[in-house]
Amino acid sequence: MTNQIKKKIAITVGDMAGIGPEVVLKSALTGEVVDSCVPVIICDAATFRFTADRLGLPCDIPVLSDENEILEASGPVIVDLANIEKPLEFGVERADCGKAAGQFIEKAVDLWQKGLVDAISTAPLSKKSLALGGYAYPGHTEMLASLTKTERFAMSFFAGDLRVVLMSTHLPLKEAVDKITKKSLGDLIRFTSKEVSRLIGRPAKVAVSGVNPHASENGMFGSEEAREMTPAIEECQAEGIDVTGPHSADTVFLRGFRGEFDAVIACYHDQATIAVKCLSFGAAVNVTLGLPLIRTSVDHGTAFDIAGKGIAEAESMKTAILLATKLAGGR
After folding, report:
1. What region does 248 belong to: left with phi over 0, alpha with psi -120 to 50, or beta?
2. Quick one: which of 1, 242, 298, 326 has the fewest CB in 10 Å?
C-alpha cells in the first residue's frame, strides 16, 4: 500500500495509569496495523516510553516536532503533549492523568478539524480521573459530542456482523425502561437506519430487541412492547425503513451476529454489552454514531488492577484501529 492512500488514524492512549498505553503499544506497531494505516499516537511521550521500558515493549517511534509532519508520515508517529509532570503510578486515579487524557481527546479532534487525521481511535480512560482533572463529562462519547457540537449521538458496539445500538447508556435499569417510549424508540430507529446505512454503504436492516422476557409474549410479561415499541416500529416501517421487532432478546443478538440483521437496537446498557461480550469479548469495538468524525474505541476499561503488569490483551485496540481505518475509507 502506498503512503498516499494510507489513512491517518489518531490514537489517544487514554489514562496513562491504566492499560491504555500498553494496548496501544501492543497493537499500533503490529504489521497488520502499520500496513493498513498511519498510527498517530497522542500521548505524553516520556511517560509512554517509560511504560514501554517497564513492560519490555518496543517503542521506536519518532516524536513529531510539528504536527503538520503528520501529512508526510508513512509509519507510526507520536504527537507529544508533554502534559504529565509527576512520575507515573500504575493503577492509581490521579487528576493529572485525567486532565492529560482529556487533552489527548481535544488534540485528536483538533487534528481532525485541521484535516491532519482521518479518524480517531481511543484507548480507555477513567471517568473518576477525568472528573478529578476538571472535565465534567461521563466519558469519551459525551466529550466528543461536545467538542464537535453534535446534538444527536448514540453508543454502539461492532462485533463482526453484529452491530448493537443502545437506547440508553449508564442509567439505573428502572430509569432506562421508563425511557422506552414510542417517540424515543422511533427517533432511534430512524437515526440507526441512517447512520448504519451510511457506514456500511447500503440500506441497513434493523432489528429491535424487546425489553421483557420473550418480548412480553403478547402481553403476558409486560406492556412496553405493545404500548410503546410496536407502534414505533410500525410507524417507521410505514416510512420505508427496513425494521422489525420487537424480537425476543435471548435470540436477536445471535441472529445479528450471524448476519441476519445489520443492526440491533438494545433497550438498555447491559442488554447490549452482555450479548456483545459473550459473543465477541476482547474483539468488539465501541463506535459512536452521529459524530461528524469516525471514532472507534475498545470494549473494555482501564483495568487498573492489571496496569503495569504487561498482561493486557490488545485485540480490541487493534480491531478498533483497523475498523476506524475501514470506516474512514481505507484498507
Report:
1. beta
2. 1
Q: Which residue's C-alpha cell is 487514554?
A: 14
3-state secondary structure of 132: helix
Give exposure, 119-150, as e/b (b: 16+ Cβ within 10 Å): bbbbbbbbbebbbbbebebebbbbbbbebbeb
Asked if pLDDT for residue 89 goes beyond 50, the answer is yes
- State if pTM tops 0.85: yes
For 193, phi then psi, to 5°, come to -60, -45
pLDDT at residue 1 greater than cutoff 50: no
Q: Name the CATH superfamily for 3-150+291-327.
A: Isopropylmalate Dehydrogenase (3.40.718.10)
Torsion of CA 101, 104, 109, 113, to 10 degrees: 160
* Geometric angle at alpha carbon 52, from 51 and 56, rounded to 5°: 120
The architecture (CATH level 2) of 155-275 comes to 3-Layer(aba) Sandwich (3.40)
* The residue type at 129: S
Same fold, 3-150+291-327 and 155-275: yes
φ, ψ for residue 168, nearest 5 deg: -145, 160
Dist CA 271 CA 81 (whole Å): 38
Q: How confident is the model at residue 330 (pLDDT cuts 50, 70, 90)?
A: low
- Where do the domains of the chain lie? 3-150+291-327, 155-275
Tens-place pLDDT, residues 175-220? 999 999 999 999 999 999 999 999 888 999 999 999 988 877 777 7
In the predicted model, is pLDDT for residue 167 greater than 70? yes
For residues 261-280, average pLDDT: 92
Comparison of pLDDT for 174 and 221, the residue scoring more? 174
Indicate the burial class of 170 (C-beta count within 10 angstroms; 0-12, 13-18, 19 or more).
Answer: exposed
